[in-house]
Amino acid sequence: MSREAWTSRRDFVRISVVLPAAIAFGAGSEVTAQAQQRPPTPACADHPDATPGQTEGPYFKPRSPRRTSLLEPGIGGTKIRLTGAVLSTDCKPVSQALVDFWHADSQGSYDNAGYNLRGHQFTDDHGRYRLDTIVPGLYPGRTRHFHVKVQAPHRPVLTTQLYFPGEPANLKDSIFHRDLVIRLQDAGAAAFDFVLDLSRR
Ligand code: FE
Q1: How many CA atoms lie less than 13 Å away from 9 in the CB half-sphere?
Q2: How far, in Å, are 7, 51, 106, 196 from residue 80 at the CA level?
Q3: Of 17, 65, 86, 152, most Cβ neighbours within 10 A?
Q4: How far is it, in rounded angstroms, from Cα 129 to Cα 133?
């Protein structure tokens, strides 16, 4: 089962168990309020699977600029903020992990001459990253996706891709992987946590 499906099911189970229990034992609004204040998704499963790797594709370029925003003046497309963390398989945040994104513009084209929509950053002390960019456009043969490389300090590079939920082309793309679907949050915001197996050298 995908991590997304797993968290969704766990949230469903939590809600369906906690709320009737609160009502049955007369705990009142306090418990209900606590349940509502919990984050919608857990930060990390007990023993999450490592994020699967995927093909790099033909458009990676090394030495991207270090930046958390790929937004340029006059850029077209729908803005999106992607946030999350880099975690180990025992749920520890990985600080100073390299996270390097590249993706197509709103028309489905990559900038292979320059570095538009390319950028790397390092996770903070809590293993977190944040990317401000646009929703990638579609190009023939693929569903909508981000490319990304993630690397804990002194560990191998994980090359993978991230996908959007509910994309019709997900069903037709042989590379698509349901464990790599971002979680859409509020308008313009999405989340994905990378999980690295730090025992790999
Ligand atoms: Fe691509």
Answers
A1: 7
A2: 22, 22, 12, 24
A3: 86
A4: 13
Q: Which residues of 82-101 are buried (b: 16+ CB within 10 A; e: fewer)?
A: bbbbbbbbebebbbebbbbb
C-alpha of residue 6 to centroid of ligand 1, in Å: 27
C-alpha–C-alpha distance, residues 79 and 136, integer Å = 10
Enumerate the β-bridge partners of residue 191.
83, 183
Instruction: State the pLDDT confidence band at 14, using cuts at 50, 70 and 90.
Output: very low
Tokens of 190: 């999405």
Q: Which residue type sits at 168?
A: P
In SS3 terms, 107-166 reads as CCCCCCCCCCCEEEEECCCCCEEEEEEECCCCCCCCCCEEEEEEECCCCCCEEEEEECCC
**Per-residue pLDDT at 12:** 35
Cα dihedral sign, 179-182-184-190: positive
Rounded to the nearest whole angstrom, what is the distance from the C-alpha of residue 171 to the centroid of ligand 1? 16
Q: What is the pLDDT of residues 170-191, one digit of tens each?
A: 999 999 999 999 999 988 999 9
CA of 192 to the centre of ligand 1 (A): 18
What protein residues have CB closer than 5 angstroms to ion ligand 1?
57
> What gap in Å lies between CA 18 and CA 117, rounded to an integer?
43
Amino acid found at 10: R
